[in-house]
Amino acid sequence: MTLNRVLIYLYVLIGLVPYLETTDKIHIQTFYLSILNVISISLIISKIGLRTTINSLLSSIGKSPAIFYFVFIAFCLLSLFQSYNLIQSYIKLTEIHTQFLSFLILLYLLSTIDNLIKFFSNTIVILACVELASTFIPYFNDIIKFGSPVNRSLEYRGVTGSVNILSFLLLMKLPFFFYLGLKANKYRWLYIILITFSFYSITVINQTRSAILLSILVIVFMFFVFIYNSYAEKNNQYLNRFNLFKVLIFPAILVVLLSNIQSSAFNITESVQSRISSIDVNEYSTNSRIRYFSQAINSIFNKPLGVGFGNWQIESVKADSQNIKSYIVPYHVHNDFLELSAEISLLGAIAYYMVILTVFLFLLQKIITSIKNKNPLEYELLFFVSLGIYLIDSMVNFPGGRVLQQINLIFIIAVLVNLYKFKKI
After folding, report:
1. 30 with 36: CB under 8 angstroms?
2. Based on the number of CB atoms within 10 Å of its own CB, is 77 exposed (0-12), middle (13-18) or buried (19 or more)?
3. Is there a contact between 358 and 65 (Cβ–Cβ < 8 Å)?
4. In angstroms, how far is CA 23 from the centroid of its own chain?
5. How far apart are CA 344 and CA 396, in angstroms?
6. Closest CA to 8 of 407, 416, 420
7. What CA–CA distance (Å, rounded) separates 280 from 287?
8. How far apart are CA 393 and CA 400, in angstroms?
9. pLDDT category, 273, cuts 50, 70, 90?
10. Distances (CA, A) of 153 to 17, 19, 164, 233, 268
């Protein structure tokens, strides 16, 4: 099964695909995925045969997340009748079809992995190391070269394409690092380092305000979860107060101190407190999002069948024409649900979100059952929080338009489908 593991890593490490002189990685990453899909299917066929491969892929389509994904694609196709620009719709359809096939392939590949939880845990550690290295190297280079970091430099986006993307990708991994850091005696120091560097990247280097607020909420929430677990698992020594301090509280305190030191030393970057206090409904970023939301809602009411998949970037220019300055155009609604509703109808957007919500609500049911039975909350809770972070991100940003974030999402869903043995409907 070594080959299958390699193929999985080739999917999840898509962020390492270079820009190749393009301004955005989306199209290069889609091209890379298309080639990887062909290679993966060819290798699977050579190993298990054509008929078995087809049966495996068809079996995957019968599971609830894949069914809703398929329905979502159907709505995307139907929206072509409403499309202003068919070429743009075809480009977006290529991305979605490529990602859907990647999802089916990952469902099969992950079904062949023994000890899936261990494999997943190792994979997110590798991903975090790659992501952190890609942002800390240019960050330290700037300090050495210029004497200080550049405030929210584009270079700090690392392998992700955006500092905001990087922040949320790291944030989605934090619940697992907290849990693994408490559980692991031998390698606890490794997870404390990962937590500290991740939190530093989110709050000090990237300064993504929504991610900073969510980081604080996640830390508080996980603290109370672990307190609950300490009562549910009275015989486990790893849930003592000292370990909770080392894994949850110490990294946060250290990063806040380092943030204030950096702010004082370099005088061009904001401390964590300053960054959070800068949130204001009258501030440009917040105000523009509210305006985009309103424009999308108006479009949904006026054109309930949508404006065509991938066509919001055209419609948005018309909707925001009175507010556009210089070369700044809306492009995205900064809310995937509203954007998809405006493009392919409300039902189409619901179909997309049901891909996530079927798994999300399944995990919620397991959490409720565990609490009723007074059992500790473990991976079902960690995956629930991670998917919750993605859902919140999709309400204020546009991860649905980012290939890297979509691959991370379908990787998590594919792991869950195999881990909890989702059955065909």
Report:
1. no
2. middle
3. yes
4. 21
5. 19
6. 407
7. 8
8. 10
9. low
10. 20, 17, 12, 45, 12
For residues 145 and 48, what is the distance between their CA atoms, to the nearest angstrom?
A: 54
Q: How far apart are CA 369 and CA 72, in angstroms?
A: 31
What tokens appear for 341 in the block? 């509703």
Residue identified by tokens 């699977």 is 44
pLDDT per position as a tens digit, 277-291: 666 555 667 778 888
pTM above 0.90, yes or no: yes
> Cα–Cα distances in Å, from 131 out to 39, 106, 159?
26, 21, 6
More confident residue, 238 or 76: 76
Handedness of CA 205, 409, 402, 351 (dihedral sign): negative
Contact at 8 Å (CB) between 319 and 298?
Answer: yes
CB of 258 within 8 A of CB of 200? yes
Quote the crossing angle between the two packed helices 403-419 and 346-372, to the nearest 10°. Answer: 40
Per-residue pLDDT tens digits for 119-164:
999 999 999 999 999 999 999 999 999 888 888 888 999 999 889 9
| Helix (H/G/I), strand (E/B), else coil: 270 | coil
Give residue for tokens 């060819």: 42
Instruction: Name every residue whose Cβ is closer than 8 Å to that of residue 132 and which is 6 or more positions away in sequence.
Output: 158, 170, 194, 197, 198, 201
β-strand partners of 266 = none
Closest CA to 260 of 200, 209, 303, 206: 200
- Which range has highest mean pLDDT (84-98, 236-250, 278-292, 310-324)? 84-98
Alpha carbon 56 to its chain's center? 27
